[in-house]
Automatic annotation (TrEMBL):
It comes from Tsuneonella suprasediminis. This is HD domain-containing protein. The lineage of its organism: Bacteria, Pseudomonadati, Pseudomonadota, Alphaproteobacteria, Sphingomonadales. Residues 64-134 form the HD domain. Pfam families: HD.
């Protein structure tokens, strides 16, 4: 009997442990190889998820994908670097799964690949964007003031003023998603800051 042939598809390429504490170096060599292949697909998964915002208007003048493209296009045309432009593109990607905390979802996705400042802008843009509409919803327009003494206060206020709050114009000629795809792939190739960065370098 040919055991390998009769084994379930792919079983030879799987770790043998039933509890992680039984794991061996061989198990982790298998998992490590799979992990890197999976991690390389991250840009595709992120871009696929961003496309979920297509046609999602939520009452706004443009849908959430166009808002994302327009925010990124405005940042790019204003001379921002790739990290910043990718953050601008993805800043609202959390709208689908993080309906009550969308800035944190986007910030977590980009965190391994961007500077502390760019991450901070993404993570906190909700409070700063609120300056333009919270008062219409019975909320505190100046909610951002809790960060007034933070070194990145000005940078986040600038992101919202120049790009985010400005990106609802149905007549603006935004670049298509394809324009930004190479940037997303370049930025997400290697993590700068991650618990797993050392393992990624080794492969
Ligand atoms: Fe947002
Ligand atoms: Fe936005």
């Amino acid at each position: 009997m040919d055991v390998a042939k009769d084994a379930p598809h792919g079983a030879a390429d799987r770790a043998k442990f039933r509890e992680m504490k039984e794991g061996t170096a061989q198990d982790w060599a298998i998992i490590g190889g799979e992990y890197m292949a999976f991690a390389k697909g991250l840009p595709d998964r992120v871009l696929d998820h961003l496309r979920l915002l297509d046609g999602d208007f939520g009452g706004f003048p443009v849908d959430r994908l166009e808002h994302s493209l327009q925010t990124a296009t405005r940042a790019h045309r204003d001379g921002r670097d790739e990290q910043y432009v990718v953050m601008a593109l993805l800043h609202d990607i959390g709208d689908t799964l993080g309906s009550y905390n969308h800035p944190e979802v986007a910030a977590s996705i980009i965190k391994p690949f961007v500077s502390e400042e760019v991450h901070w802008i993404c993570q906190n843009h909700g409070h700063f964007q609120g300056y333009y509409y919270f008062h219409f919803l019975g909320m505190d327009q100046n909610a951002r003031d809790q960060f007034r003494d933070h070194p990145y206060f000005g940078a986040c206020a600038e992101f919202c003023e120049k790009y985010d709050q400005a990106a609802f114009d149905p007549d603006y000629q935004s670049e298509p998603l394809e324009f930004f795809e190479p940037m997303v792939r370049r930025i997400m190739t290697r993590p700068l800051n991650s618990l797993y960065a050392k393992a990624a370098e080794a492969v």
